[in-house]
């Protein structure tokens, strides 16, 4: 059984949702979609440091989106998996309303018990 959201499979939907959140300035959603191992979570200061860096990047990308008229379209390519299908690399193309040049992104995802998460 393959679950999908519209025409997107779950890993593609996760990549699109993350990209939408980033360009909308929704750091809470974006950060909730990032995978941290149990070891990472326990490392003193690491989650807070990553959160700060991610919020700064999201603010930058939101500003970029606003300057370019907002998002016109987000398209998600076919994933490339590792042998175990635990990791997926997904290409995302973001087209802006006032820009002729789309922005290409590559998102690495990891399959977790909570669904697909961004692997940084």
From TrEMBL:
It comes from Snodgrassella alvi. This is DUF4878 domain-containing protein. Residues 14-118 form the DUF4878 domain. It comes from the Bacteria.
